[in-house]
Design goal:
Shape: elongated
CATH superfamily of one domain: Isoleucyl-tRNA Synthetase, Domain 1
Radius of gyration: 26 Å
CATH architecture of one domain: Orthogonal Bundle
Largest sheet: 7 strands, parallel
Helix content: 40-55%
Structural class: alpha/beta
């Protein structure tokens, strides 16, 4: 049987930035969904990378006394190192300075130009260098960029234009025919409103700087950084040659995960580029919200930018992975605070999950010398406990496919808390006092450890090290965290040795 394919992407991160919690959030969400899809038997391609061209990079490099490529080489390592630290299992890491990308972008440009959808003209408008965006005078707020609030410059230059206006109705028709294309729904409405106001042709080249991909046949022009960057999603798959067959296999993308600040580029510019190139559109673009810190917007001037490396060093990888996707509904804005993080670690991880693992494995070791007893004829009470697992697995699958990560974690924790309640309700310590109830006690132990196994598989996309540790404690293959065929009740075999677990999540005392 052929495996189902799944292609998920982060935006490529601009190298004129330092990795912060927002970058980590996007990449972590993609990693969790990629891991979940692999566990469900999909062949997954998970792409991330860095956007390394443009005027901002050129200016920053000049200020630092280095070449733009030297700056890019230095900064991209920060992203690559952080993804390794956060246990991100991406398939590929693309850099827009790589030859495979530059070749692909020039070929796409030439293809669209040959069809008549790119033409040479003059552009005059107000340009915001930090945002790499032109604005009309009516867009400006007191002469400043409406996005970042910084001053703009009036520029007039020769430019190649993309006939974006030509695709206005086609884009509206596509969005209306595919309600899942832009998520969440509020973002879809926002984009439709923008497109209906009218699309102008888009300037897609610059002559005022040199750091970028030259226009084919006219190297005094540099291809606009967004036309360059967005095409990474297909150049990483080998388009247009497709020597490895990845483009044919994985395109169109299953989901582009982005921050809401780059929604327009991904749901207006990118689809119209693809339409002009005669290529299928991505199935879904999901725009998540922003993080504030202790109720305030992150900014360097406030010195409140949350640095992910520091969080991992202080609290551990899996607690950070858990917190970021549990705390806020994916798609809405969220607020980061150390007290909320510590509460989640102490309550959800130490009290709930950690306690379940400690109690269950300790009792098997105390009452059965660390050997898993066989399942026993289930009482009506036991069966009710067992029956909730397939129901929750189906619900969690829906939630994961909808990128409702916090809802999926709530569902998993309902199983965790139910298992803890099962211990309290069955009172194994009382059953252990009666030798005639020894088999029934064994059945309770089996149910607890089997619940722990399924919970371990479910948490593993979010907390890979924790999932592997649970499997190891249960005498299972810690490297086999698949849910495909392992999500049925009864996967544990009686007679296996069960390790007495050490506390997995030590409680944190607030400073």
């Amino acid at each position: 049987m052929n495996k189902k394919n799944f292609y998920i992407t982060t935006p490529i991160y601009y190298v004129n930035d330092v990795p912060h919690i927002g970058h980590a959030y996007t990449t972590l969400a993609c990693d969790v969904l990629a891991r979940y899809k692999r566990a469900r038997g999909y062949d997954v391609f998970f792409l991330t990378g860095t956007d390394e061209h443009g005027q901002k990079v050129e200016k920053a490099a000049q200020a630092n006394g280095e070449t733009p490529l030297e700056l890019a080489d230095r900064v991209m390592q920060r992203f690559a190192a952080l993804w390794k630290k956060l246990n991100i299992a991406n398939t590929d890491f693309i850099r827009t300075t790589q030859q495979r990308h530059k070749d692909g972008v020039q070929k796409i440009f030439s293809k669209i130009e040959a069809s008549g959808d790119i033409y040479l003209g003059y552009y005059e408008d107000w340009y915001c260098t930090p945002c790499e965006t032109f604005w009309t005078e009516t867009n400006l707020i007191e002469g400043c960029c409406p996005d970042c609030g910084r001053p703009t410059d009036k520029l007039k230059e020769e430019s190649y234009f993309f006939r974006m206006s030509k695709y206005q109705q086609q884009l509206i028709d596509h969005i209306e025919a595919h309600p899942e294309f832009i998520q969440p729904r509020s973002r879809r409405n926002e984009v439709l409103s923008f497109v209906r106001e009218g699309l102008r042709d888009l300037s897609i080249s610059r002559t005022s700087f040199s750091w970028g991909i030259p226009v084919p046949g006219n190297d005094k022009h540099i291809i606009y950084v967004w036309f360059d960057a967005l095409n990474n999603y297909i150049t990483a798959l080998g388009y247009p040659e497709d020597k490895d067959g990845n483009f044919e296999k994985f395109w169109p993308a299953s989901v582009h995960v982005i921050g809401k600040d780059i929604l327009r580029f991904h749901t207006v510019y990118w689809p119209t580029f693809l339409m002009a190139a005669g290529l299928p559109l991505p199935e879904k673009v999901f725009a998540h919200g922003w993080w504030t810190v202790e109720g305030k917007k992150m900014s360097k001037s406030l010195q409140n930018v949350v640095e992910p490396n520091m969080l991992v060093d202080k609290y551990g990888i899996d607690p950070i992975r858990y917190f970021l996707l549990r705390e806020v509904p994916f798609g809405l804005d969220g607020d980061f605070s150390h007290s909320s993080l510590i509460h989640r670690i102490n309550s959800d991880l130490a009290n709930d999950l950690g306690n379940l693992i400690s109690r269950s494995t300790a009792m098997v070791n105390k009452y059965f010398a660390g050997i898993l007893p066989p399942a026993y004829a289930a009482t009506e009470f036991d069966q009710k406990f067992i029956d909730q697992f397939p129901e929750k697995l189906a619900l969690i699958d829906q939630q994961m496919n909808g990128l409702a990560f916090n809802k999926a974690l709530v569902s998993i924790w309902e199983l965790v808390r139910s298992a803890n309640k099962y211990i309290d309700d069955t009172a194994p310590w009382a059953l252990a006092k009666d030798k005639e109830l020894h088999q029934q006690l064994g059945g309770v132990m089996y149910n607890l450890l089997e619940a722990m196994r399924i919970i371990g598989l479910l948490v593993s996309p979010f907390m890979p090290d924790t999932g592997a540790s649970i499997m190891e404690i249960l005498g299972q293959d810690k490297d086999n965290l698949t849910l495909d065929g392992q999500d049925q009740w009864g996967g544990l075999t009686a007679g296996i040795a069960i390790e007495k677990a050490k506390p997995m999540f030590p409680r944190i005392v607030e400073d």
